Amino acid sequence: MLLANSRGMLAAGRRAAVAANAMQLRSLTTGVSGAADKLTYEFTDKLDLIKPESYESRKAYQVIGEDGKLRQSKEPSLSAELCQKMYENMVRLQVMDHVLYEAQRQGRISFYMQTNGEEGINIGSAAALKHEDVVFAQYREAGVLMWRGFSLQNFADQCFSNADDPGKGRQMPIHYGSVEHNFHTISSPLTTQVPQAAGAAYAFRDAGKDGPVVATYFGEGAASEGDFHAGMNFAATLECPILFLCRNNQYAISTPVQDQFRGDGIVSRAQGYGMASIRVDGNDTIAVYEAVSEARAYARENNRPVLVEMMSYRIGHHSTSDDSTAYRPIEEIESWKETAHPIPRFRKYMEAHNLWDEDKETALRTDVRKAVLQAMTHAEDKPKPDALDNLFADVYTEMPQNLVEQQRELSEQLKKYPAHYAVHH
Amino acid sequence: MNMFMAINDAMRTALKSDDSAVLFGEDVAFGGVFRCSMGLRDEFGKNRVFNTPLCEQGIAGFGIGYASTGRTAIAEVQFADYIFPAFDQLVNEAAKMRYRSGNQFNCGGLTVRAPYGAIGHGGHYHSQSPEAYFTHTPGLKVVIPRDPIQAKGLLLSCIRDPNPCIFFEPKALYRGSVGDVPVGDYTIPLGKAEIVQPGTDVTVVGWGAQMHVLAKACDMAQSEMGISCELIDLRTIVPWDIATIVDSVKKTGRLVVSHEAPKTSGFAAEIAATISDKCFLYLEAPIQRVCGYDTPFPLVFEKCYVPDHLKNFEAIKHTVDF
Lengths: 425, 322
Ligand SMILES: Cc1ncc(C[n+]2csc(CCOP(=O)(O)OP(=O)(O)O)c2C)c(N)n1
Ligand SMILES: [Mg+2]
What we know:
The structure holds two protein chains of two kinds. Chain A has helices spanning about 80-105, 120-130, 140-145, 150-160, 195-200, 225-235, 255-260, 270-275, 285-300, 330-340, 340-350, 360-380, 385-390, 400-415, 420; strands at about 135, 215-220, 240-250, 250, 255, 275-280, 305-310. By secondary structure, chain A is α/β, with parallel strands linked by helices. Chain A has two domains: about 60-380, Thiamin diphosphate (ThDP)-binding fold, Pyr/PP domains (Rossmann fold, 3-Layer(aba) Sandwich), CATH 3.40.50; about 385-420. A five-stranded parallel beta sheet of chain A has the order 1-2-3-7-6, sandwiched between helices. In chain A, helix 9 (about 285-300) links the parallel strand 6 (about 275-280) and strand 7 (about 305-310). Chain A is globular, with a radius of gyration of 24 Å. Chain A starts with about 80 loop residues before the first helix and ends with a helix. Chain B is an alpha/beta fold. Chain B has helices at about 5-15, 40-45, 55-65, 85-95, 95-100, 130-135, 150-160, 175, 210-225, 240-250, 265-280, 300-305, 310-320; strands at about 20-25, 50, 75, 110-115, 140-145, 165-170, 195, 200-205, 230-235, 235-240, 255-260, 290. In chain B, strand 8 (about 200-205), helix 9 and strand 9 (about 230-235) form a beta-alpha-beta unit. At the A-B interface, helix 14 of A face helix 3, helix 12 and helix 13 of B. Bound molecules: thiamine diphosphate and magnesium ion (MG).
């Protein structure tokens, strides 16, 4: 019973008491078929101001405890093969993050963002989705693309803005996107992807039980934007098969959750939207896998959105432009790293089940490191995209006159001052 | 003192001299991602310098409401590229509150600060110059400083101006631009351009970080061609100082206007139209606009994209050779 510990958010028994002008609202139809057709409520003579302290906190679903031991008597349903593939991808993600982060430190790329601490969220959720499911991500979800087969070379090419970057070098590092992998190109403005994802999901309403769903990822900070409300409410009212996958890593750059919201995290909002929801321990990769699998099945079967709040902690700095020791104690970071990091936790579980050992670990890390370094060297050696060809293209499908003229002006300028505009400058 | 310190100093001055002033925005409490609010929370307390939830429409709306009580709101939007969720609040609300209420209500105590402009590695969303979207909105003042001394004086003017102001800070200059910023309380008048370098042959107009590019182009024109440029910093983009530019162009007969933002519908178009109207018979050459191209801001092509000193030098030369 996956949802055994969670309280139902769509509890039909909850009826708000509204005074005064309530009469005409009593039987207002909402137009939604299913769980709640009508906005119905009862009257009471009890004047009851409900205080926030009385709201219960939602429990987070967990399969493996921080000690790496199973919390349930029942073994999880994942095959040994799947577990191994998930673990390997988590390690690969961690190693890639480490190498590219260092590359930024050495000035070889201009920017980087790590998933450190959120490898379980990345890989656990990715493994629960199907390849056809369309992903609208925020930026700390490189593992989802990795799971789908975006290669180390693909990642490196984007970060080095070379001619093989499908984004043609136009965006900052880590703004990946791949139509082949059903992964929309990352856009830095936060939360814009959330209502877009609802729109894409609307297109899949009639896709049948084997059809795709949409999955959108966002941070707990991004959930404060107006676009979050728009996306959630549209998906609920328009009955879209979509997963809202919130990575609650407790910080939005320097801003801690207590400055971000005062409710019970993000999951509590689902009730307000009439939406199904799960809270899960995001550092427990198997729990994430099970929660997102369950959510996906529900969304597809019912044409309904699900909000999944994945509880975690951002162990790394926000990005290479950030020094997080300016706003949080090192002990806090260390304690999460030591006791809750998803990789050692998953490894303990794997070892206890004889699926993994020290030799495999060493071999994997050595191989992956070599592969990342190699991809990086290749990426660095490749030429940059040509400016004249790529600067003016794709603004529109066809170049309007103003751009044709500007392209010609640039061409003349490049001829006049070739040394100044040489690439690698 | 560099620019982020000058801005910090201006806000300290404002918070000190006005008990109603508050400073807020994303990550402001720990000092802000560009360090502009460093130390201010410790100095003025968490009720006056605080983090907001991550929501620009909230930041703008909250600032408007606070200012509508007659108090002073200094709101930070983390990057100008992220001001668009606040667009409705700024364009439809802040700009029109006074007018629509027949001057009963206003939010003149609101100043919205946002870092803008090219930085060398910002790509689409950490590089934009969105001033023209706001200059198209009567009721807002739009101000952009070129160095730390200007930044402090102009920001204090914005904070104290009885109209809502948008103050774009050239982020490329936060650390790079250094000056002897007066320690005391001073303001620089809004709506007044400044002739940074007098000259006789070509009027060159810009603002913000572009002033440094233009100074280089003017030097080049002088040393390589003996062309004397009159370089003007517009400083307040709206309401703009038409008279200063008109007087200069009547003298030189030539005008080059330059900004990082895309050319089409950029503020240079407004200046060109007004000057061709007011100085038609004085003009010796077509007015030149040297701007960003009409494309999104591209990471790897930034060097080609920006209106650099060489493109401006060519434009200056062109007006003289015409
Ligand atoms: C609209 C918008 N406002 C501000 C920013 C600047 N910014 C980038 S990431 C970030 C914090 C996001 O925090 P969260 O959503 O919790 O994601 P996390 O970084 O923790 O994964 C901010 C404020 C932005 N990119 N877009
Ligand atoms: Mg976060």
